[in-house]
Amino acid sequence: MKRILYPAFVFALAASVGGCSLFGSWGGPKRAAWRSQAENACLSSGAVRPSAVVRPIGEVDGPGACGADRPFKVSALGRETPIPLNEQTAMNCPLVAATDNWLERVVQPAAEAFFGQPVVEVQHMGTYSCRRIAGSRYMSEHAYMNAIDVSGFKLADGRTVRVKTGWRSADASEASFLRAVGGSACDDFTTVLGPGSGAAHQDHLHLDLARHSKGRRVCRGGDEPVPEGGRLLSFFKDDTIFKDDQLDRTGSIPGDGDDEIRDPEEGIYDK
Ligand SMILES: [Zn+2]
Q1: How far does residue 66's CA lie from ligand 1's centre (Å)?
Q2: How far away, in angstroms, is 29 Cα from ligand 1 center?
Q3: pLDDT tens sequence for the chain (271 residues)
Q4: 18 lies in a domain?
Q5: Residue 24: inside a domain, yes or no?
Q6: pTM of the model
Q7: Would you say residue 23 lies in a domain?
Q8: What's the 162 CA to ligand 1 centre distance in angstroms?
Q9: Ligand 1 centroid to residue 18 C-alpha, Å
């Protein structure tokens, strides 16, 4: 009798001891190591400092691999003069730093150039959403607070320039401004998808810091003609369009792990 029960006992013991690492929430999909490294490097660089408008909220872990190690609740962005957001939102450190840079380096100068006044509110449609890319098995960068969907910019005089209406607006200043800020975002973010990249991005610029193969960037606005005065060329560089066979793929659990390099063709979906 003992000889029959013994293996069952050993199995039960092993299962209970190993349970922490093999089963349950402890053993669920993990965020890729580079995400923690990027957060830590960003925090130690001093690029983002906690303040009344950028408040640390502690680790958000799960469901699944979703979340971030040391995220912030952000109500205003921009280094010198923070610009309020229409709604406070959760962002990881690299996303705060990149958006700060973009607003300071590109958006405010472009607003002054095209409208003669600054942006006083950045309007977004969200940063954190624990989900896959629509129509894809890959997790969205939004699942890691590593992406922001910018939908518009409120100017000092109260006027709002919206991606939805401004991108193809007869008002050349709106269309040019949006193309300028979208095109130049490729310098601060690794993925930029605008209205020309597909039906899912008609009303916002999707900006994220995904880690693409070989350090490449995926920047797509669409096939609209370059407006006079716009800085659109970088938005459509040929080298930002690449094919499946140029992509490296690293091992992970399809659809669950998040360290697999994604096919940029998926940019046609809602990211
Ligand atoms: Zn998005």
Answers
A1: 15
A2: 22
A3: 444 444 444 444 444 343 333 333 456 688 999 999 999 999 999 999 999 999 999 999 989 999 999 999 999 999 888 999 999 999 999 999 999 999 999 999 999 999 999 999 999 999 999 999 888 888 999 999 999 999 999 999 999 999 999 998 999 999 999 989 998 888 899 888 888 777 788 899 999 999 987 777 787 764 444 444 333 333 433 333 333 322 222 222 223 333 333 444 333 344 6
A4: no
A5: no
A6: 0.76
A7: no
A8: 16
A9: 38
Q: Residue 79 belongs to what domain range?
A: 29-261
The phi and psi torsions of 18 (rounded to 5 degrees) equal -80, -5
Question: Is residue 48 included in any domain, yes or no?
Answer: yes
Whole-number Å distance between alpha carbons of 18 and 13: 8
Burial readout 66-92 (b: 16 or more C-beta within 10 A, e: otherwise)? bbbbbbbebbbbbeeebbbbeeebbbb
Provide the token pair at 106. Answer: 């590109």
Please tell me the distance between residue 140's alpha carbon and the centre of ligand 1 in angstroms.
Answer: 8
Q: How many domains does the chain have?
A: 1
